[in-house]
Specification:
The structure holds two protein chains of two kinds. By secondary structure, chain A is an all-alpha fold. Chain A is about 75% helix and about 0% strand. Chain A has one domain. Chain B is globular. Classes of the chains: A mainly alpha, B mainly alpha. At the A-B interface, α1, α2 and α3 of A face α5, α6 and α9 of B.
């Protein structure tokens, strides 16, 4: 019997996800927003891996899913930072509140 | 004892991915040809050829009776997916034909990147509509999103980069929320294959009681958030107006139809199979989706009335149109097998007609806008005297978007509303009809401008004389009118497609 059960991992996962979501909504620096999105995705990863580990048949799909999410998240940040660099070169700011030409 | 693993036992069959493989190779070829070609217009024709070949391959794949699942059930080949692939490819082809003059003028340094990314986004959408497994769906979704983000940012001016950043951030948040829903779904069912889910879900709900039921509802709602973003429905529509204003015009046209069609395809596939077949009663599906539909229609139409920028007007219009299509999705939760078919085929027909109508509008807009204009509705004044053909196309397109005869979306709306009435959701049909009346006001305002005579002497834009642009406008115009007058062929195909995958 494990001391840690599935629900502990799910709590951790929900916590990570919630912290990330609050970060996205509350922060103004776009780099920090990107980091917060990473937190949300990692919350998802924890849930997936935990579900996989505790499933009756030890289903591997959750682990694979998590690896793909990590890869996709890396690509996402690469594109996000590339666009942010272009914006920074023109406006000298990474503040989300100041990037508001378009409503 | 190690099991012998070979391609056949895993169901690996490259023929089932032929359209996507062809398009990927053409996308790579486009980028390579860009390095050596002096005359960049060859890239547009190469891309158009690639899209046509992919369309041919999709039709061949279907007619060669290769239907069914391959790659252990990851790739599903059915008429439903084929119809959506053809809608996406049709939208892509028209968008490519719009582009040469625009790309020459605004994106002269990025010919190869432009067409290459456009084709890769299309590959993502085509994969999206044929995937039957969650991991693959997420990957396909991200392929198209990343290609689209780069396309939106390609102008590299302040508006374009800003709208790309907004699109990327909101899309990433929506995807994260959707993934959380998928993780819960995976936790409940222990599988990522959609086809395996209904049986397990039904079992879990039967013996697990309230907790599993709640978890399933949570998963469903979270996944709707992700796809609500893709189809630009309220309350996930914040990205639409900035992106429409900032992105290159042909890309906006492309985004508005292709991405929406792909989003609806997955929504239908996932939800009909997983949530409907499982006989989930706790979630009032028609009320939830119907509520989203009414909110999208109403907010889209009401806010569109006060717009002065034609691209923003079309942005709110696309939000409203997503609402009409959601009527069809809402009906799915409310009825017998024949209503299922009616609603699904209604969605397919509407999306096809919408593709023609919206792309006709964007094509005409490219032709009518002055070279250095600001996209305000006033700029369209005197459009008829400047470019009679484009003015007629825009007029017909906007009439179709209102839903007046004899156009494709008139039939499409009747089809969807009839489905709603059949599914006992007459309030949705009523809301849709009322909203169509409201929308007539703002859709017809630019039309009035077009036919007024202009005081100022605005030069005809270079784009209006582009042969490929005129050709694609003509094709869209013919599509809109044909679907309005003789819709029967497409209706029977759409019904077959609906039957091919509804249980």
């Amino acid at each position: 019997m494990d001391a840690l059960a599935l629900q502990h991992y799910l709590l951790l996962s929900a916590g990570l996800f919630a912290v990330g979501l609050v970060g996205v909504l509350a922060k103004r620096n776009v780099v920090v927003i990107l980091m917060s999105i990473e937190l949300m995705l990692n919350g998802v990863n924890v849930a997936l891996v935990a579900f996989s580990r505790y499933s009756p048949v030890d289903e591997l799909a959750g682990h694979i899913f998590a690896i793909f999410i990590i890869t996709v998240a890396a690509a996402e940040v690469a594109i996000g930072l590339a666009i942010l660099l272009t914006i920074f070169a023109r406006r000298n700011t990474v503040d989300a509140a100041e990037i508001n030409l378009l409503k | 004892m190690p099991t012998q693993i070979d391609a056949a036992s895993l169901g690996i069959d490259f023929a089932h991915l032929a359209p996507e493989i062809i398009l990927t190779l053409v996308a790579i070829a486009v980028v390579l040809v860009d390095l050596v070609a002096r005359d960049k217009s060859v890239l547009a024709w190469l891309s158009a050829l690639g899209v046509a070949m992919a369309g041919g391959a999709a039709v061949w794949l279907w007619t060669s009776d290769a239907s069914g699942a391959s790659y252990s059930g990851i790739v599903i080949t059915d008429l439903f997916g084929t119809m959506f692939k053809l809608i996406v490819l049709g939208g892509t082809l028209l968008a490519i034909l719009f582009s040469p003059a625009y790309v020459e003028r605004r994106l002269a340094r990025f010919h190869g990147e432009y067409y290459g990314l456009l084709l890769l986004a299309t590959v993502g959408m085509m994969l999206l509509v044929s995937m039957g497994e969650l991991i693959s769906i997420v990957l396909a979704l991200e392929i198209q999103t990343f290609a689209l983000v780069a396309l939106i940012a390609l102008l590299k001016d302040e508006k374009s980069t800003e709208s790309a950043l907004k699109f990327l951030l909101l899309s990433a948040v929506a995807t994260a929320v959707m993934l959380y829903g998928m993780a819960i779904l995976f936790g409940l069912t222990g599988t990522t294959f959609i086809a395996d889910m209904p049986a397990i879900v039904a079992e879990r709900v039967a013996d697990g009681g309230v907790a599993n039921n709640l978890a399933l509802i949570l998963a469903g709602v979270l996944i709707i958030v992700g796809f609500g973003f893709k189809i630009s429905s309220v309350p996930f529509q914040m990205w639409v107006p900035p992106v429409y204003e900032g992105a290159p015009t042909p890309i906006v046209g492309y985004l508005s139809v292709a991405s929406k069609a792909a989003g609806f395809a997955v929504l239908l596939r996932l939800f009909i199979v997983v949530f409907e077949q499982a006989g989930l009663d706790a979630l009032d599906w028609p009320l939830l989706i119907g509520g989203l539909a009414v909110a999208s229609m109403t907010i889209g139409n009401v806010v569109a009335i006060i717009q002065t920028n034609i691209k923003r007007l079309l942005a709110y219009s696309t939000i409203a149109q997503a609402g009409y299509i959601l009527i069809g999705v809402a009906v799915l939760g409310n009825g017998e097998a024949n209503v299922y078919e009616l609603a699904t085929s209604g969605v397919i027909f509407y999306l096809a007609a919408y593709t023609f109508s919206n792309l006709a509008a964007f094509g005409a807009l490219i032709a009518l806008s002055p070279p250095n204009g600001n996209d305000s509705i006033e700029e369209l004044t005197g459009g008829f005297s400047r470019s009679p053909f484009a003015a007629v196309v825009l007029t017909v397109a906007l009439i179709s978007l209102v839903g007046l005869p004899p156009t494709g979306l008139f039939v499409g709306k009747i089809y969807l509303f009839y489905g709603a009435v059949q599914g006992d959701l007459w309030w949705l049909a009523l809301a849709g009809a009322l909203n169509s009346f409201v929308s007539a006001y703002y859709y017809l305002r630019p039309v009035r401008r077009l036919w007024q005579s202009s005081d100022s002497d605005v030069a005809t834009s270079e784009a209006a004389r582009s042969l490929s642009l005129r050709a694609s406008m003509a094709v869209s115009l013919i599509g809109v009118i044909t679907l309005g007058i003789v819709p029967f062929w497409l209706i029977s195909r759409a019904t077959e497609a609906a039957a091919s995958f509804t249980p």
